[in-house]
Amino acid sequence: MEQLSENKIFGGRQLQFQHTSSTVNCDMQFSVYLPPQAEVGKVPVLMWLSGLTCTDQNFVTKAGAQQFAAEHGMAIVCPDTSPRGDGVPDDPDGSWDFGLGAGFYVNATQAPWAEHYQMNDYVVKELPALLAANLPLDFNRLAISGHSMGGHGALTIALQNPGMFRSVSAFSPIVSPINCPWGEKALGNYLGADKSAWADYDTCTLVAKDEQKLPVLIDQGSADNFLEQELKTELLVEASKQADYPMQIRYQDGYDHSYFFIATFIGEHLDFHARHLWS
Q1: Is 224 a catalytic residue?
Q2: For the chain, what percent of residues have pLDDT higher than 90?
Q3: For the chain, which domains are there?
C-alpha cells in the first residue's frame, strides 16, 4: 500500500492509499478513517460504498462522518466505485451510469468487462485482506453501508455473505436493479442477457432467500428525483414483508438524493452500526 495523503480530523487520521489490485487488474485508490482509538488497538470497521460517478473521496469530504466515527471508535473504509486507468473499458457512449465510476459491485462475466470489473470480489475479499494485514482494523466486527448504487452494493454484499457483517444500512439504495433502467443497463452488460444470472445482485430477490436476518436500516428521501424510476423503495418494503424480514425503512420528508441528505442522517447510521459492532 502506498500512502497518498493524511489529514488529522477529530483526533483521528484520514488516510488515502493506492495499491495494485490483482482482482480488478489495475491500480486502485481507497480511503480509510482511523479514529483516535486505533492508536492503542484494533477498532471495528464500517465499509462505505459510494454511488454512481463517485470515487473514494466523495463520502470522505461531504458526509461529515468522521466526528461520529471518532466518538464510537470506529474506522471507515471507502473503496472506489470501479476499476480505473489505461486499458479499463468505459461506456462506449460516454454515459455516467455505466463503466468508470459505475462498477455496481458485481463480478462481471462478459467481455470486455470481466477482465477488470470484479468489484464484488475486490470489496469482499481483496481489500479487507490487504487492510487487515496493514492497519489496526478488526474485521471480525464489520458493518457495511452505502448510497444509491453503493446502497445496492451494501445490501447485496451483506445478504450474499452470511456471518461477515454485524449490520447493514443504506441511503437511497437501488433495491431491485433487475427492475430499473440503471440496473438493466449495468447487469445486462456486465452479466449478459440471461436475467437468471442477475438475481444474485438484486436485494429484493436475495431477501426472499436469506435466513440470517441482519439488522437493516434504510433511509430514503421523499423528494428524491430517482425514487420512482430507479430506486423503487416500495419493492423492498413489500419483499421484506413477504419474507418476514424485519427492516427499518424510513422515508424522510423533503430530502433528495444528495450528500446533504446523507450528512443529515449519517450520525444516526453510525449510532445504529455502533450498537451492533460493540455488542
Answers
A1: yes
A2: 98
A3: 2-173+255-277 (3.40.50.1820)
The one catalytic residue among 176, 224, 240, 273: 224
Neighbours of 3 (CB within 10 A): 10
Strands 26-34 and 75-79: antiparallel
162 CB-contact burial (10 Å; exposed 0-12 / middle 13-18 / buried 19+): exposed
176 classed as catalytic: no
Give CA–CA dist 35/39, Å, rounded.
Answer: 8
Q: What mean pLDDT do residues 99-114 have?
A: 98
**Which one from 116, 147, 152, 257 is the annotated catalytic residue?**
257
Half-sphere exposure of 223 (CA within 13 A, CB side): 7
pTM: 0.97
Dihedral sign for Cα atoms in the order 183, 229, 267, 33: positive
